[in-house]
Each structure stands twice: as C-alpha cells, then as structure tokens.
C-alpha cells in the first residue's frame, strides 16, 4: 500500500513537472519549439540590397540595428520605411556607433567615436536622439537597442541603466542559447557570424529546437559590404531552413520576442509564493 502511494506520488510529480515545462516553454516561443531572431547591424547597403529582399521573399522578418548618422539611413530613408511597414524592426544602434577605444584591438575607433571619452549623459542623449529619428521613419515607439561593439559601460557605469524605460530590451554580443527565465533583457546573448558555414548556423538552430531556447544571430555584411561577413549562399540556406520548419521555429523581430520574454518573466515573478 505504501509502495503504491509512493509510486503514484512519484508519477504525479514526474508527469506534472514534465507537462509544466513542455507547456510553458513553447507558450513563450509562440507555441513553438524555440525562437530565432535575425539581427543585422550598422545600416549598410547590403541590408536593403540583399537581406530585406531575401527575408521578404520567404515572408520572414528581422531586426535591423541602424546607426543614426549612417549615410545609408539618410540616402535610402524611404526604403527603410518600407521595410518597417513590411514588419521588420528598425532597432537603435546609437547615433555615432561609439566603441571603447581604450580596449585592445580597437585601433579602428576614432577620437570622435571613442566611448571611453563620452559622458554617460552624452551617450544617453545620442541614443535618445536616434530613437526620435527612428520614430520619424517608422512611427513606432517600441523597439530594442544593440550595444555598439558590445560595450556596456562608460567609466564603470552601465549607461543602459538610464535607458531601460526607452526600450523593450538590449542585445549584446555574447554567445549563448537561453531559456526565457535565463534571458537578461538588458544584455541579450547573440551569436556573431563572420565567415561561419551554413552547417554551423543550422547546427545552432537545431540545438535551439532541442533545448527550447532563444537563438539570436548577429550579422553585419551579407554577401559583402562589411569586413565582418557571411556568404550569401550560406545565409540563404539558413533562411530556407527556418522557412521549411516554421511550424516549429518562431522567427520574429527582437522587439516581439523580447516583449514575450518580458511578459513571461513578469508572470513568473508575480506567481512566486510570498515567504
């Protein structure tokens, strides 16, 4: 009798936990196995020449992190507006793309765009100015931010702390697959792609499917246009796989995925019993 009760209790716990985990994770990912976010940095010509047409042809949507001062933004503003109208997110990648020039390997940083020489107030002001510009392009107020060069601090101070109410979330540059509860919305992990094969990217997607996690790709050049580049054919293979498995993979702009994660994290925190 005692053994029967123990078995019944064990089975209830086993199946109960299993059903909760399998119910909660897919719900966060729009009732699918995982979420994949395609992000493209720096507002370069290939975004509009190669990427947007490729995404549109498969009815997939991505996030384009625009540098406010980029001449490609000014010169091709109507095209960015049309991209936003088709569901792509125009994210904020700061006004001047400032990076910390005091760090190793930063010889490309100029004195005008050296984050280590910024004040926090200047960084915050420039990022908010870029939000104003983006709002004038797409008419939207909800969007995400991407740290230029992945730099989080100025003089030891995290400047994004003053911007949390301006954005839904911020994307970083650290590799990682994460469950909804593991995601830090102030610094979302992303896999930077520079020369990796289609097989490498597809393997990441399959791992995300198996682990029910968030996978964020960080691209610069696609078929050229930037020193950090992915082959056009490899990028196309990734998109085709995502489209072929869209019943299992939620592909959406960062802002939509982040909003879902934010709601899930808020729900989890409010449901915890008080001590």
UniProtKB/TrEMBL annotation:
Matches recorded under InterPro entries: Glyco_hydro/deAcase_b/a-brl, NODB_dom, Polysacch_Deacetylase
Lineage: superkingdom: Bacteria
Keywords recorded for this protein, A-Z: Signal
Sequence ranges assigned to domain NodB homology in this UniProt record: 34-252
One Pfam family this sequence matches: Polysacc_deac_1
CDD domains: CE4_GLA_like_6s
Extent of the signal sequence: 1-23
Family annotation (PROSITE patterns): NODB
Name of the protein in question: Polysaccharide deacetylase family protein
């Amino acid at each position: 009798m005692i053994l029967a009760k123990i078995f019944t209790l064990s089975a209830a716990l086993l199946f109960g936990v299993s059903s909760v985990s399998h119910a909660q994770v897919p719900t966060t990912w729009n009732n699918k196995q995982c979420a994949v976010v395609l992000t493209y940095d720096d507002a370069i010509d290939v975004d509009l020449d190669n990427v947007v047409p490729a995404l549109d042809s498969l009815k997939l949507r991505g996030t384009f992190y625009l540098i406010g001062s980029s001449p490609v933004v000014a010169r091709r503003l109507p095209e960015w507006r049309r991209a936003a109208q088709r569901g792509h997110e125009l994210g904020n990648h700061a006004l001047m793309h400032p990076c910390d020039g005091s760090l190793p390997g930063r010889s490309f940083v100029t004195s005008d765009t050296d984050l280590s020489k910024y004040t926090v107030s200047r960084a915050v002001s420039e990022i908010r100015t870029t939000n104003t510009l983006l709002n004038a392009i797409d008419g939207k107020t909800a969007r995400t931010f991407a740290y230029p060069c992945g730099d989080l601090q100025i003089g030891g101070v995290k400047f994004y702390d003053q911007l949390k109410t301006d954005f839904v979330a911020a994307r970083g540059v650290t590799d990682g697959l994460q469950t909804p509860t593991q995601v830090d919305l102030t610094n979302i992990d992303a896999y930077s792609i520079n020369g990796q094969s289609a097989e490498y990217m597809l393997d990441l997607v399959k791992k995300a499917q198996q682990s029910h996690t968030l996978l964020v790709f960080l691209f610069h050049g696609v078929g050229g246009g930037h020193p950090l580049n992915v082959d056009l054919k490899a990028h196309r293979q990734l998109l085709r796989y995502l489209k072929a498995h869209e019943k299992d993979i939620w592909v959406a702009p960062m802002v939509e995925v982040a909003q879902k994660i934010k709601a899930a994290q808020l729900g989890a925190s409010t449901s915890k019993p008080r001590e």
